[in-house]
Amino acid sequence: MKKIFLLLFASTTMLISCNDYLDVNSSTNNPHTDDIAPSAFLASALSTTYRTQAVAMNEYGSVMTNSWAGNVNAFTGGYRTEFTLNFNTNTRSVIWDNLYTGIFNYNNILVYPDPSNEYGNHKAIARIMKAFYMQYIVDLYGNAPYKEASLGLGNLRPKYDDDKDIYKDLLLQLDRARTDIAASTASLIPAGNEDIVFRGDMTEWAAFANTLELKILLRMSQSTEADVVALRTSRIAALSGKPFLTTDAAINPGYNGDSSQGQNPLYQNWGANKDGSSAGTNRNFTVASQYIAKVLMGTESNTHVNSTGILDPRRTRMFASLATGIVGINQGDVTLVAGGTAPAAASRLGGGVTGYLGVDATDRYNNGSGKNGYIMLASESYFLQSEASFRYPSFGGNAKTLFQSGISASFNLYNAPIGTYTFPTLIVAAPYITATNNVLGLGWDGTPNKLEAIMTQKWLAVTGINGIEPFLDQVRTGFPANPFAITAPAGAVKPKRLLYPASEYTANSANVPNVVLSQIFVVNQFTPFWVN
Fold first, then answer.
1. Crossing angle of helices 450-462/468-477, nearest 10°?
2. Which of 195, 206, 217, 515 lies 20 to 30 Å (CA to CA) from residue 133?
3. Distance between CA 186 and CA 191 in Å, rounded?
């Protein structure tokens, strides 16, 4: 864990150019974080964790669910680790390292001396977001440092907590955050522009906390352990009728194109340079997979999804359209087509994802650089509610209606203006919902297993934006049942976790469990507890 804490201030200064309120410390060599007021620290904490979510986590999930492929015309060998499932302790290790950096930032807010509770709103936000990202640590790794990790530099070798116990405590933290929000008084310092998500709207934060709790409980949907079942049952019923997110939880600290570090991190990694070139970026490399291209273009037919004849209106906003539409590359295939030659081009990420839209290259660059990020989408919220309604009668609601609301929310996201750019034509969800209703995998009535319909449409709604979610859904439910890369081993199964990073084996060797590659593909003592 030592590496985690040394990374803290390298991360918290990365968006200094965006807004003055992010300049929380004048010397990164002498931080004194206990002297920084929560109002001065919150924006940086939110920005740090979102960067990991938007880049490393999003990319990993989008590749593992067969949404993204690597363009062999630009580079060779990209995503080879994911395509071959030959993971090691360096595979996506940045997720662990950087999430803990961000979690430490949130903890600094929580431990700030505040005897009169003036910063109650800021601490409630930090408590919610610490739970949000700590859940991902558990989901991707299982047991992890938790109680002792909050000691920071006071304990550089924290012990590992049981993942189920961490989950239980995350629910208690959400309870406390909502209690603090409900008890908010005029004596509290309002969370203002430093809240770069909801701009101080604590009602929205309470709805976010409810939605996060629902996600946590649904992660445990497959568990048959008596204590987990009892906890899940009581809390699902208690959430019935509570407010959930109905709008996208956007984050923007003042993203801009003045410097690469000031850009929206998704654009920084997959957008174009100011002159429209792609030099120094991943823009040329990451393209649509052949599988998602066929689903979107209405040419995919298998035992799980039959999109034949249905053009998804979102396709040209998710990926760039070429002369023949969305063109994808079969994951792991270096020959690509029957003649052994690669296509002249494949579809890069679309303007609806990167924000690269406008009248000229400079306009497109500025719009993409300044585009909102998204911590959680409204579509995710509706699909979570649909699943809860379908699985648990005590939750209430109409599962089909909530499912269709999730699709509509996805269309709304792709209709939203980006900077100075407004889409000349709106895409309309209703005809698509009608056309797909009786279609296998895409529609409610046409899919015998309703969970498959929910997870497949959720995959389409969040891929490339919050790509880690459909991957975790796939580990939990088996859906969306997307194919593996052709270079995956015969009889491959999805990994159920990542390996602990090399940094832990170096700095915290006395406590880190020794997990080897063969153990991440089967259920064992190292598997996250909610995986069956």
1. 160
2. 515
3. 12
